[in-house]
Specification:
- The chain is α+β, with helices and mostly antiparallel strands.
- It has one domain: NADH Oxidase.
- Helices cover 35% and strands 25% of the residues.
- Helix 2 crosses helix 5 and helix 3 packs antiparallel against helix 5.
- The chain starts with a helix and ends with a strand.
- The structure holds flavin mononucleotide.
- The site of flavin mononucleotide has 9 residues, from strand 8.
């Protein structure tokens, strides 16, 4: 009886932890913002970032622009043969998530502050509020062409950051070994780059 109670309590605790930690994002804003030429004119890399968190609307907008769906089963960034081989992982101060673009959610992968794993030696990455990590599924696209997809996603995010007056920088100097564990990647997945985002200091 006692054992059954303990097992039930553990199962309930685990279930609550998993579901409670997922984040449902507000619908992304798909119109408006700065004119595209203004955003291109203001696109730049910024490494001087405030530590304050970004709100969920901003996260939703950045992620949708990066690799959301803008047509039936088709995305805001191109990919070779429409393989859609990239996933965006999101490292926040409180935990690690994967962007579920279909359901506009952040699904929890890990809890705790793992921002240090998003860099090898750039200290601002450890205190910036948001790090996106671009992870390629090599079982879908094993060649170098997947890197172009990541570039297209990152540029969309650069332009929305410029439109919103946020700072961002695309970085390939990520700690791939640490990220493999933190993001709980399988053998086919590879973290290829990160993009750090925050309000400008
Ligand atoms: C593929 C790629 C990798 C990059 N890796 C890093 C990086 O690891 N760390 C960093 O601070 N910036 C990185 N950058 C940003 C470049 O340093 C930056 O784009 C360049 O200095 C030009 O500045 P701008 O983006 O403001 O025009 C990278 C950019 C690209 C396209």
């Amino acid at each position: 009886m006692k054992r059954t109670l303990i097992v039930t309590t553990i199962i309930l605790a685990l279930a609550t932890t998993t579901f409670a930690a997922d984040i449902t994002l507000p619908p992304p804003q798909k119109t408006g913002g700065k004119p595209i030429f203004d955003a291109i004119n203001e696109r730049q890399s910024t490494r001087s970032l405030d530590e304050s968190a970004l709100d969920n609307q901003t996260l939703s907008d950045l992620l949708w622009a990066g690799f959301g769906y803008n047509r039936e089963n088709k995305r805001t960034a191109p990919s070779p043969k429409d393989l859609q081989e990239t996933d965006i992982y999101v490292i926040l101060k409180e935990g690690v998530y994967i962007y579920d673009a279909k359901n506009n959610k952040l699904l929890e992968k890990n809890t705790g502050d793992f921002r240090k794993d998003a860099t090898i030696s750039q200290d601002f990455v450890k205190t910036a509020p948001v790090n996106f990590i671009f992870v390629v599924d090599k079982s879908k696209e094993s060649g170098h062409t997947a890197y172009f997809s990541v570039g297209a996603i990152a540029e969309n995010i650069y332009l929305v950051a410029a439109s919103k007056g946020l700072g961002t920088v695309l970085r390939t100097s990520i700690n791939k070994d640490a990220l493999r564990k933190t993001l709980k990647l399988n053998a086919n997945q590879e973290a290829v780059a990160g993009q750090t985002i925050g309000k400008k200091k």
